[in-house]
Design the sequence.
């Protein structure tokens, strides 16, 4: 069995008026992420957690390893999306984690 995947919990605060830009950015970024072996495992839009005029999403993202994550972050296609990202996203937080068994799971 190989090494466990790198797990990231990414929190994004997004401008309401730039929701369409955010959707375009995320769609393009997801394709680049996939090219590097990454996956967006889950997307959760949080209720009532953002400042007025914005909304928050949490993305559970995984990569095969640190090298794949670094390759994604420095990918020229991703870097070319900088302006689109800056128009839409107010702030980003990233926390690293690891998979552990689900409590009470029977399989």
Sequence:
């Amino acid at each position: 069995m190989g090494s466990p995947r790198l797990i990231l919990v990414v929190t994004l605060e997004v401008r309401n008026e730039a929701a369409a830009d955010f959707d375009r950015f995320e769609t393009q970024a997801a394709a680049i992420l996939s090219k590097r072996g990454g996956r967006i495992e889950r997307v959760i839009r949080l209720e009532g957690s953002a400042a007025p005029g914005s909304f928050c999403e949490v993305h559970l993202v995984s990569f095969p390893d640190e090298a794949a994550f670094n390759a994604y972050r420095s990918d020229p296609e991703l870097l070319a999306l900088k302006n689109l990202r800056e128009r839409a996203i107010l702030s980003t937080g990233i926390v690293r984690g690891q998979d552990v068994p689900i409590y009470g799971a029977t399989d």
Observations:
- Helices lie at 19-35, 66-73, 76-79, 82-88.
- The mean pLDDT is 94.
- Residues 10 and 94 are 5 Å apart (CA to CA).
- The domain at 9-96 is CATH 3.30.70.100 (Alpha-Beta Plaits).
